[in-house]
Amino acid sequence: MTLVGQNYKKGLKGPLRRRAGTRGGLAVLAVAALASGCAQPDGARVRPAPGQQPAQAPPARALDSYAGRMRTLYKQRVPAARHWGLKQVPLTPPPPPATKPRITARPGFEVAHQKDWNLPPVFTTVPTKDKVVFLTIDDGAEKDPEFLKMMQDLRIPYTAFLTDYLVKDDYGYFWKMHRSGVTLNNHTLNHPYLPGLSYEEQKREICGMQNVMQEQFGKRPKMFRPPYGNYNQDTLRAAEACGIEYAPIWNEEVHVDHWEFREDDKKLRPGDIVLTHFRGRNDWNGTMADAMRQFLNKVTAEGYAVARLEDYL
User: Structure pTM?
Assistant: First the structure.
């Protein structure tokens, strides 16, 4: 069976690194690689199709209202940017698209029967002309209250992908995040190397985390990120059976002191998904707030706003 994934093990320590070991000597087709990182059906899902639907302009009154909110947001960000040591005030994103882009698997990231079995697409970039990027944060090992305060002060949207064995010692931290409007998603129960597991074992990892999310946060996610970005056909079959509609991974990864890029030209692109992790000084030479400064300074300097991923799906 074809395996698809990224080998992101270098930056892990302790139990996270031990969980990254491959099982059964399976060879992985590394369709693209960065240096480190992790990353019940409720109705018929819209069939993905290539390209982007034409944008439909919202009513003028709605645009005026949105513009007013964005002016207020910018004013709030000015003192917050100064307080958190940013070089510039983060840009405000455009209104969410009235017509959502159609999401398909990135070429080369498909599995057999991707389309005819209606499997969740794996993608690294959302098809949009908006000059936005999407911030995603994986696993839940570090629970930094300063990070929560920084993101709330700056009103920066992000999406979290949680692993139960790392978050279960403090569900309350992520409940605070959830109450502030952050969408919490599935990153498995135990963060295993999924292609080394059987279909049933993968399903237990994914559906089990769906159950945890329902119990702890009141909702079964529609997004799932395979640990280390590694997956095979069984992974996506299991995810679909557990109610997952999308399997976003990432195009860039940000650390406290550098960026890593999937593309050779090392450039941001409209709609790129950016990965970072819940990490602190035990793993990094800095804090999550330091990583956010690294992230926000670059995207703002290059003219990008940070948008909410769910607004485009």
Answer: 0.82
